[in-house]
Amino acid sequence: MASSTHISFAFQIDCRANRFGQYAILLRITQNRKKKYVKSSVSVSNKAWFNKNARNENWIRQSDPEYAKKNETLVKELAEVKAAYSDVLEEQNIATPYSVKSKVEEAPVSTSFLEFAREHCEDLHSNGQIRYWKQFRDLTNKLELFRKTRRMPDILFVDVTVPFLDKFEKFLQRLPNQREKGAGKVLNKNTVLNNMKRFRTLTRKAVKLGYMSADKDPFLNYEFHWLPTTKDKLDMVEIDSIINLELEIGSPLWHTRNCFLFSFYCAGIRAGDLLQLRWRNVEGGRLTYQMGKNHKMRDLILIPQANTILERYNKEGKQRDDYIFPLLDNAKPYAKAVTQDQKDTMNVELKTSLYNDISAKTAILNNNLKKIASLAGIKKHLSFHIARHSFAKLAKDKGTDSGVVQGLLAHSSIKTTEGYMGQFDTSVEDAAMAKIFDTGGESKLESFVDSLTPEQREALAKILNKK
C-alpha cells in the first residue's frame, strides 16, 4: 500500500497522572501510523471527564467545572498546531509528525504579558497551589482592570517599563479596600507593595523563560518601600486573663481558647497546621508534624500546659488519624490524606476543598477570638496569629537567643525572627532610662544591672560607651 502524506490530529488523554493527580490532554499527530505528541496546557483530575469521540469540540465533559474554558483552550491550541503544519508545508513542501511537532515547539512565544500572567495562574491552579493561585489571580484581575481604565487593548511585554510600574502602583493606591467596603478606605500600602512584589515574580519568570531579556526587567530600577507594621502581642497578664475566663465546656469559645493557647504553648503553631494536627502527631510527650507552608519538620516537647489541653480531647474511641481539634471533618475526602506527601499529591478539587475549609475555620477562630478579647478586657485586635507573636515576645522577655527562637518559629531567615523580636525588645532603652533618671544610688543601679541577661548587659554597655 502506498504511503500517505496526509496528517491527522486528535486529542487523547495521558494514561498516567502526574504527581499532582492530573491527567494531561495530548494532541496526537499521526501520519502512516507514525505518531508524535504535543502536550496541551489542559489537564483534568478525572479521566472520565475527557471524551475522545467528542463532537462540536466538546472534548472536556461538563462534569469538569472549567469545561468551557478548557475546551476553548483546546480549540485554540489545535488551531496553532494546524497553523504550524501549514507553515511546514509552505516551507518544505512536505510535512511529517516530527517536523510539525518541531515547528510547534520552536514557535515564538506570545507577546502578551497579560496572557502570560493568566497562564501562570492556570499553572498554579493545576498544581494545586491554591493560596498562591488566589494571590496571582488577584494581581492579574487588577492588571486587567488597569488595562481597561487606561483603554489599552492588551498589556504586552514591551509595555512593562518603569513608568508603567509607577502608573500601576499609583492605580493600586487608589483602589478601594474590599475588606472594608463602604468605609472609604483604599488599599493598605503594604498590600499595594505585596502586589508589586508578585508582579516582580512574574517578570523574573518571564526573563527566566526568555519572554523578556534581563536588561529589560523594569524591576531592576524599582524600589520597594515597606511601611513598618505593628505586631500586636499579648503579655502573660493578658494570657492569664484568657485562661481565667469562665467559658462553657464544649462551646465554640471554649474550643477557640484551647486552640489559641495550644498554639502559644507550642511555639506559635500556625492555624492551618494546628487544624490539621492528628493524634499520630503526638507521641512520647512530643509533638511532631510537617508545616504546610514550607514543609519543614517540627519536633517540640509538649509542656504540661499543652498536655492539659490535649487531655480535654483525648476521648475513648479516638483513632490515630483523627484530627485532634474538632474543627475539620474526619469524614471529608481530603481527610484520607494524612501525611504532607499525601496532601501534596491530592487532586486540585481536594486541595481546594481543604484550603477553603481551613480558611473558613480560621475565620471562625478569629471571630471568636474577638469575643474572647472583649470578655477578657483586652483592647488589642486579637487574632490567631498573635499566639505566634506572643510566644516570640515571651521568648525575648526571657532572654532567649534569637537563633534559638528562629528554630522554634521555623523561620528560614534570622531577619524574619529579628523582625518579630526586635519590636518587642525595649530592655536596652529601659536600662538607659533607668540610668538617666536613677536617684537610688549605686546599690540600686548595681542590683538593676545584675538583673539583666548577658545580652542586655552587652547592649547597655554599647549605649553607655557612646555617651
Topology of this protein?
Layout: E1 8-13, E2 23-31, E3 34-44, H1 67-92, H2 97-105, H3 113-126, H4 130-149, H5 162-174, H6 189-209, H7 236-243, H8 252-265, H9 271-275, E4 282-283, E5 286-290, E6 297-301, H10 304-311, H11 340-344, H12 348-376, H13 386-397, H14 402-409, H15 414-422, H16 427-436, H17 441-451, H18 454-466
Antiparallel strand pairs: 1-2, 2-3, 4-5, 5-6
Helix pairs in contact: 1-2, 3-4, 5-6, 8-10, 8-12, 8-13, 14-15, 16-18
Structure notes:
- The protein is mainly alpha-helical.
- The chain has 4 domains: 8-105, no CATH class; 113-221; 236-422, Intergrase catalytic core (hpI Integrase, Chain A), CATH 1.10.443.10; 427-466, no CATH class.
- The chain is built from 18 helices and 6 strands.
- The strands form 2 sheets. The protein has a 3-stranded antiparallel beta sheet with strand order 1-2-3, covered by helices on one side.
- Strand 4 and strand 5 form a beta hairpin.
- The radius of gyration is 29 Å and the shape is globular.
- The termini are far apart.
In short:
The protein has helices at 67-92, 97-105, 113-126, 130-149, 162-174, 189-209, 236-243, 252-265, 271-275, 304-311, 340-344, 348-376, 386-397, 402-409, 414-422, 427-436, 441-451, 454-466; strands at residues 8-13, 23-31, 34-44, 282-283, 286-290, 297-301. By secondary structure, it is mainly alpha-helical.
